[in-house]
Prior knowledge:
The chain has a single domain, classed as Alpha-Beta Barrel (TIM Barrel), CATH 3.20.20.150. The protein is 48% helix and 14% strand. By secondary structure, the chain is an alpha/beta fold. Helix 5 (148-158) links the parallel strand 5 (131-135) and strand 6. The protein contains 9 helices and 8 strands. It has helices at residues 13-23, 40-50, 69-89, 107-127, 148-158, 169-175, 179-186, 210-220, 237-262, and strands at residues 2-6, 27-30, 53-57, 93-96, 131-135, 163-168, 190-194, 225-228.
Amino acid sequence: xxxxxxxHFLGPEAEGxxxxxxxxxxxxxxxxxxxxAMPGPALRALLEKSGLRAACVMGADPGLAEExxxxxxxxxxxxxxxxxxxxxxxxxxxxTVPMWRGxxxxxxxxxxxxxxxxxxxxxxAGEHGVxxxxxxxxxxxxxxxxxxxQAVAMAKAINSPHVRVMGDTHHMHMVELDLGxxxxxxxxxxxxxxFSDSDRLPPGLGSMDLKTVVSALAETGYAGALSLAEVRPxxxxxxxxxxSLEYTRALISAxxxxxxVDR
Length: 263
């Protein structure tokens, strides 16, 4: 496992990325194209110059599960564009959240529409060497993919090596009955992971049992990023970034070492 953070955490990328590199970060998560102040190739060059890699591109795709075919087409093309943006900045993973808030009786058709949309998008992603990661989010934001198990079920229905799933401790804390079990059951389907403490605080400053989360990830052999993409700073941003990196690194080291001892 490794630690990444949102690319603009310490300000616009031109000034913030070198600072993140000096703090010891090796990777960042890149926000959506519209929220980055420079073209993809220029951002990639700056990342390389700073000694950083792009772990993932953030994304949200309301409309992939809609009944309206024109609306689905619009969002499929948007997701494809995000995949191309990922190739420009050198990221191998694109996050997607197939939002849907319809009535319960419409859940299965919505699920089927999302699967159909992501089959096409996943094929496109594979052609460009990118993996799409389906994120489960809390019921306040969607009624379609709420738990990691539902995300895995969708990925299995899509049946593509280029569509996997991702977790987010913020959402999991609200919906999963047992975080460790949810992670272990998702297993090798996990391609990415958003990491924060309760209320999106920096790791170690809230009330979540993050040791259980990281231990379960270590048990599955997860080798991707713990991304501090949506951590909210407490006080000075640079202090928050440094603390989050040091705490998360130490937690990863302890949990991975314990996993070796247990074996």
